[in-house]
Amino acid sequence: MVAVDKVNLTPVSKLDDAFDRASELKAFDDTKAGVKGLVDAGVVEIPRIFYRPPKIDDSSSVETHLGVPVVDLEDVDKDPLKRREIVDKIREASETWGFFQAVNHGVPATLQEEVINGVRRFYELDSEVKKQYYTRDTTAPFVYNCNFDLFSAPAANWRDTFFTLMAPVSPRPQDLPEVCRDILVNYSKEIAKLGELIFELLSEALGLKSTHLLDLDCNEGLALICHYYPPCPQPELTIGATEHSDNTFITVLLQDHIGGLQVLQHNKWVDIPPVPGALVVNVGSLLQLVTNDRFVSSEHRVLANSEGHPRVSVASFFSTGPLPTSKRYRPIEELLSEENRAKYREITVQEYNLYYAEKGLDGTSTLPHFRL
């Protein structure tokens, strides 16, 4: 447990000119206890580093009559007619929403429940045990911290996160916490198989052969990013995850029952409510780049948790992330024409990821930086 007086962070109710953001960020980070440490200490006012400046247009915001498309993958490999229908739905969802919820995807519900529970077990470990994993070194095999962009983003988000790259090279078992080691490995194997199928369907949705995106190695990297959103005493003043688009080819998200995920559609925020057994699939910015804006990587966010229980989510990022690889990506040649010229320059995934991390979640898109 972290003592509030030891952390000595400025609550929102005590705003003054003496606020030293850099010092308070460092003091918070040095506790290595994350947001959960603040909650365990019994804070009733959030520290100022988490205060989210309101946006002028933010209150225009929530649309309750729209719903993210749901795609049923049952019999996708058995029925050619059904497969074409699924491809059409995925094409429409990827071109308009950048999101869809997949059901009957083959990942067992029991496995989903086990990985949510495994992630929760890690975050509920004694603080002193968790501290051994706390690091800002993104090359570590298991990275646990609070906000990857804590020192670069305009405001800290009310969540803790751990990250581990499961492919192309798996971590050694001893590098993963024992409380969730086996389930992370087992879950990543099932998600890797599902990812391969989704890339096939996305390729067909582009009018290409089913292996096209796989041949580009879009599924080469797989990282598990596991978030823990503790209850927030002042959820109206902060956010669980600032609006952003993912630095991936695709993301496959498992969320628990609490909710809070929203996607921006027609300048309105639309809830993506948890559907039992479903997985949320979204287009990442790297896929928008290689499809030359054919598929859209939509901005999304997570509201601060106002429930009495922590929210847990497991995001599977299909990307090699910060790994140094020589593979270069640019808009797919078969999708280009005189009327549809390449909009982005050729880049590496590492180059994109480094800029994304340096910029942090600031509410703006990363893609324009790489436009021609």
TrEMBL record:
Q: Which GO terms describe its molecular function?
A: dioxygenase activity; metal ion binding
* Keyword Zinc annotated: no
Q: Entry's Gene3D superfamilies?
A: B-lactam Antibiotic, Isopenicillin N Synthase, Chain
Q: Which UniProt keywords apply?
A: Iron, Metal-binding, Oxidoreductase
The region annotated as signal peptide is: none
Chain ranges of the Fe2OG dioxygenase domain:
220-321
**Which cofactors go with this protein?**
Fe cation
Family recorded in the similarity comment? Belongs to the iron/ascorbate-dependent oxidoreductase family.
PANTHER family reported for this sequence: 1-AMINOCYCLOPROPANE-1-CARBOXYLATE OXIDASE HOMOLOG 1, OXIDOREDUCTASE, 2OG-FE II OXYGENASE FAMILY PROTEIN
- Identify this protein by name: 1-aminocyclopropane-1-carboxylate oxidase homolog 1-like
- Give the species this sequence originates from: Cucurbita maxima (Pumpkin)
* Gene assigned in the entry: LOC111474030
